[in-house]
Design goal:
- By secondary structure, the chain is an all-beta fold.
- The chain has one domain: Methylamine Dehydrogenase, Chain H, CATH 2.130.10.
- It contains no helices and 16 strands.
- It has strands at about 1-5, 10-15, 20-25, 30-35, 40-45, 50-55, 60-65, 70-75, 90, 100, 105-110, 115-125, 130-135, 140, 150, 155-160.
- Strands 9, 10, 11, 12 and 13 form a 5-stranded antiparallel beta sheet that branches. A 4-stranded antiparallel beta sheet has the order 1-2-3-4, with no helix packed on it.
- About 35% of the residues are buried.
């Protein structure tokens, strides 16, 4: 589940390959967005205009919340804007998408074939890969956007 930055809306994952958008004040469902594969993680951009949805096929779908249409889909396995994606390189894991406070970058957790967890750091606009951070399951940006803290068996601090 994820709340919009203004707390007026929230999004939920469903087992029927859908994401539901809700009005937080009334509890009314606004729309059901269909996903090509089961969704695992959600995140609103800081401006609340886009919802990022990561699925089991290692794709991140950008949903435009003004039109309720897909703006684009990127493969977090390859970095390319295409569907379907090659799922042989890594496996998406059920960890949240983490967006930076300024909305410029996001982190997607992956599991390599060697069972090593990594974090895929990407530009939000276009989805280009910036780097892959090794040996990490979770990530959190500092509120001022200066630091990225990752953790698995150790805690690491990065400058994004």
């Amino acid at each position: 589940m994820a709340f919009s930055p203004d707390s007026r809306y929230f999004a939920t994952l469903d087992t029927d390959r859908s994401v539901k958008l809700w009005n937080a004040g009334t509890g009314a469902r606004i729309i059901t967005l269909r996903t090509p594969a089961p969704a695992q993680a959600l995140a609103f951009t800081p401006d609340g205009r886009t919802l990022l949805v990561r699925d089991q096929q290692q794709s991140v779908v950008y949903w435009n919340l003004q039109t309720y249409q897909r703006d684009r889909t990127i493969s977090v396995a390859t970095g390319n804007s295409l569907e379907p994606v090659d799922t042989n390189e890594a496996t998406a894991i059920a960890q949240p998408i983490t967006l930076s406070p300024d909305g410029q970058t996001f982190v997607v957790p992956l599991l390599l074939p060697s069972s090593e967890p990594v974090l895929d750091l990407r530009q939000t606009e276009g989805g280009d890969r910036l780097t892959v951070l090794d040996a990490a399951f979770t990530a959190h940006f500092s509120p001022d956007n200066r630091w990225l803290v990752t953790s698995a068996t150790t805690i690491q601090i990065w400058q994004p």
